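Let us work through a complete example step by step.
Step 1: write down the sequence.
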Amino acid sequence: MLPLEPSLARYIHRNSRDTSELIDIRQEVYERALSGAANGIPQNTKAYVFTIARNLLISRAKRARIVSFELAADIDEVQLDAAVFDAERHLSARDELRRTMEGLELLPPRCREVVRLRKVEGLSTREVAERMGTGRDAVEKQLTIGMRALIDFMLGGSGKIRRSERGPNDTLKRGAQ
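Step 2: predict the structure and record it as C-alpha cells.
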C-alpha cells in the first residue's frame, strides 16, 4: 500500500470537500484496508484501496448533508431581517435589468425589435412575423442571433453579433470538415 500513497493522497485531495482532513481520511482508508485484508489479501491492491477511498468519501459526503436537530433548532431561534434580503434581491434585479437594457441597445434595430416583441411582449413567432412583415424563419434567425449576443453581453462579453460560419446552402465557408 505504501507505493500507492502519493496517488491516493491526490485522489482524496481531488475528491474531498474538506482537504484539511486529508491525513485523517488516508489513515481511515489504511485502517479499513488492513482490517479487510485480514480475510485475505486482495488480488488487485490498487483497485481495492481506491474503492475503499471512494466509499469512504461517499459516506463522509452523506454524513455532511445530514443536519442535526440542534442546528435546526438554532436556526429557528435566529430572527433574520427579511427586508435586508429583499433589498439585496431588489438591487440585484435592478442591476440585471439595467445590463439587459444595455445589451438590447447594442443590437441592430431589427434584431432588437424581434427580441423585444418575442421575449418582452411575449408574442409568438407568427405574430412577430406578421407585425414586422417578414417570414417566420427570419424572425427565428434574428431571435437566435439577438439572444446569443445578449447572453454574451450579460456574461461579460462584447455583445456583438457573430454570424454563423454557414452560407446560404448550409455548407461551411471554410470548406468541408
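Step 3: interpret the result. Residues 169-177 have pLDDT under 50 and may be disordered.
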